[in-house]
Specification:
Blueprint: E1 3-12, E2 15-25, E3 31-35, H1 42-50, E4 57-62, E5 65-66, H2 71-80, E6 81-84, H3 96-106, H4 112-125, H5 141-153, E7 159-163, H6 171-186, E8 191-194, H7 198-204, E9 207-212, E10 215-221, H8 222-227, H9 232-241
Parallel strand pairs: 3-8, 3-9, 6-7, 7-8
Antiparallel strand pairs: 1-2, 1-4, 4-5, 9-10
Helix pairs in contact: 3-4, 3-5, 5-6
Magnesium ion is lined by residues 42-43, 163-164, 194.
Length: 244
């Protein structure tokens, strides 16, 4: 996907969550990772890319199309994308299957029986067949996140946005969710994710950007950025997080 960001700014009171971000990625990038310290502005940038929030200033173009500003167009933009957040955000009173069916019907306007068929199909593909009648509280964190990922993928989003999808999981579950995301990458799904999983970002992302204090500190091909970071903050960050 091509991404062109110019002068992107978003303030929350005195906090500059995005402070003049400029970035250009070409069409060869399918998987794009945002890394950097907590509070640096990764989630803010993901929300702006997905159209969940509006910038104070600046523009974003994805494949030449500008993320719109008016409410109606923005709603359509959001619908084209799939989202997954750090904490699972499943509806606790619905079964795994109903968690997937509900947005297909209510947000995407599918007929119920079509939504049901699609939900069963994607649950099977994600290896969650045995769990479709369970409620979130009966599922492990990893299983919940797989259902949340199935839900985000059910309408075949143009772009899948993942905000630290594994940071609430313990190591084994982390691995199973990362495997699933890796499968989606291999299948050609276009993904933008923020992550603290540096091994995953290095191995699976085509391009990586390091965001700190609402700004782009460094960006480039994943292997280059991890193997030969250029700037002092990125070197310091990587040596700290790769130490263990
Ligand atoms: N809705 C919000 N209201 C107020 N401050 C926010 C909001 N969202 C983010 N921030 C602030 O913006 C900065 C960037 O946050 P965030 O984008 O969540 O960073 P990251 O995802 O890299 O941890 C932080 O200082 C955070 O506290
Ligand atoms: Mg965040």
């Amino acid at each position: 996907m091509s991404i062109e960001i110019r002068g992107l700014t978003k303030h929350y009171g005195a906090t500059r969550a995005a402070d003049g971000i400029d970035l250009a990625l070409d069409d060869s990038v399918k998987v794009f990772a945002l890394i950097g310290p907590s509070g640096g502005g990764k989630s803010t940038l993901l929300r702006l890319l997905g159209g969940l929030e509006k910038p104070d200033a600046g523009t974003i173009r994805i494949d030449g199309a500008e993320v719109p500003q008016d409410e109606e167009a923005l709603r359509l933009w959001r619908r084209k994308n799939g989202f997954l957040f750090q904490s699972f955000n499943l509806f606790p009173h619905l079964t795994a299957l109903e968690n997937i069916i509900l947005p297909l019907v209510q947000v995407h306007g599918w007929k119920r029986d079509e939504a049901h068929g699609r939900a069963r199909e994607i649950v099977a593909r994600f290896g969650m067949d045995a769990h479709l009648e369970k409620h979130p509280a009966q599922l492990s964190g990893g299983q919940q996140q797989r259902i949340a990922l199935a839900r985000a993928m059910a309408h075949e989003p143009a772009l899948l946005l993942l905000d630290e999808p594994t940071s609430a999981l313990d190591p084994e579950m982390k691995a199973e969710v990362l495997d699933l995301i890796e499968e989606l990458c291999q299948g050609g799904q276009r993904i933008i994710l923020s992550t603290h999983e540096m091994g995953f970002a290095r191995g699976s992302a085509d391009a990586v950007v390091f965001i700190g204090a609402g700004r782009v500190v460094e960006s480039g091909a994943a292997t280059a950025l991890f193997d030969q970071p250029q700037s002092a903050p990125v070197k310091a960050f990587l040596s700290k997080v790769m130490k263990w």
